[in-house]
Amino acid sequence: MRLSYGLSFWSTKGQWVTNLSQPCLRGSSGLFVPPSPPLNPEKVKEFQRFITLSKKLLVMTGAGISTESGIPDYRSENVGLYARTTRRPIQHSDFVRNAAIRQRYWARNFVGWPQFSSHQPNPAHWALSTWERLGKLHWLVTQNVDALHTKAGSQRLTELHGCMHRVLCLDCGAQTPRGALQERFQDLNPHWGAEAQGLAPDGDVFLSDEQVQSFQVPSCLRCGGPLKPDVVFFGDTVDPAKVDFVHSRVKEADALLVVGSSLQVYSGYRFTLTAQDKKIPIAILNIGPTRSDHLACLKLNSRCGELLPLIDPQ
Q: Which residues does NAD(+) bind (predicted)?
């Protein structure tokens, strides 16, 4: 299935204008959500029991919780990036070593950022924030880089793969807000404009090579080094100290709930292995199969934002 977007970003009379025309196929909140069966009342009751019995619940979320906010993912059947296109995400080593690849990445991210940064939490994010406030949720680990859990008020949170709302210098490590970098992009490219031919996960869009060639990329204000989003690109590894921290939170928990993740990436999958080793019960809420279905005592193929608000966390 091909989804066509008209996302354009250009300068006119000193002001930058963004326009996104979305297809009429479905509403934006469901555009990247695969079909799911109707809620099974018996499964809902089982899930309620699972949550009720837990006193120290650890939740791990993936891209499937944010697709309902209009953010595309990689692996969802028929609607993920891998199903819609042959394009693949950038590799860490390519970004670090090649200035032209960094130029292409930042041009695409510059166009996609206004839309990506405007996404808001959906009922699933708000439900988990409420669970934390009421003392049900011991810790939340997210593989997402969209800051939607933070926007929903979650505080007992580890962003396993970082966050697109922060930027790092590869040389000196200086950290700056992504919004501030957007202004520097605009100042360096006062007459540059582009129209994207599709959306990808994590604020990426598709641009032609011709559009990218004239795009100017700023350097670190402190040392002049190259800038990178504070996220773990494909081919990179999660900080070992962060991994150890999450392993500790898993071992403290008495139940693990996976929400919206296929667990195909080892960085998340390993925590289900830890839970299994510690005989911690696992429930999985995800549309479609996951790598850990065989480890779970309960698997639910439902929309996160449809099911989580139904559950009483007390």
A: 62-82, 143-146, 260-262, 286-288, 304
Residue 15 has pLDDT above 80, yes or no: no
Residue 88 confidence (pLDDT)? 63
Q: Catalytic site residues?
A: 161
Range of the domain at 228: 6-25+37-310
Q: 220 in a domain, yes or no?
A: yes
Q: What is the CATH number of the domain that holds 231?
A: 3.40.50.1220
Specify if 282 maps to a domain.
yes
Domain count, the chain: 1
63 annotated as belonging to a binding site for a ligand: yes
287 in a labelled binding site: yes
Q: What is the pLDDT of residues 250-262, one digit of tens each?
A: 999 999 999 999 9
For the entire predicted model, the pTM comes to: 0.87
Tell me whether residue 153 is annotated as binding.
no
Q: Is 78 annotated as ligand-binding?
A: yes
